[in-house]
Design a protein that fits this description.
about 120 residues, mainly alpha, hypothetical protein PF0899 fold, 2 domains, two-stranded parallel ribbon, 2 strands, about 5% strand, elongated, ATPase_E_C, transport
Length: about 120
């Protein structure tokens, strides 16, 4: 019984640590959008990461309405970076103008569970 109790304590400590990391990451993501240069770089890196995962020649990209201009501004560099990393031609990326992702949460408001 003591061994099981010890295992439960370890698992609880791991779970607490993971939850704390998720909370910190969500707070940091809310703050990063205020630094335009850093935020655009994050958007570019996310687009490149998505392209590397999908490995498709054409992609329909959805973003938040407030990020539309930032996403458009990083597409060219994201295509170049992806093409050089994957050693392929630049993909065609269309930004969806009819369907947007949910807006950012207000202070204290969350979209719910992300993970």
């Amino acid at each position: 019984m003591q061994l099981n109790a010890s295992r439960i304590k370890v698992l609880q400590a791991q779970d607490d640590l993971v939850n704390k990391m998720k909370e910190d990451a969500m707070k940091e993501l809310l703050n990063i959008s205020s630094n335009h240069h850093e935020y655009r770089n994050l958007l570019k890196e996310l687009v490149v990461q998505g392209l590397l995962r999908l490995k498709e020649p054409a992609v329909l990209l959805r973003c938040r309405k407030e990020d539309h201009h930032n996403v458009e501004s990083v597409l060219h560099s994201a295509k170049n970076e992806y093409a050089s990393k994957a050693d392929v031609h630049e993909p065609e990326i269309l930004v969806d103008h009819s369907v947007y992702l949910p807006p950012s949460p207000s202070d204290g408001d969350e979209h719910g569970q992300i993970w």
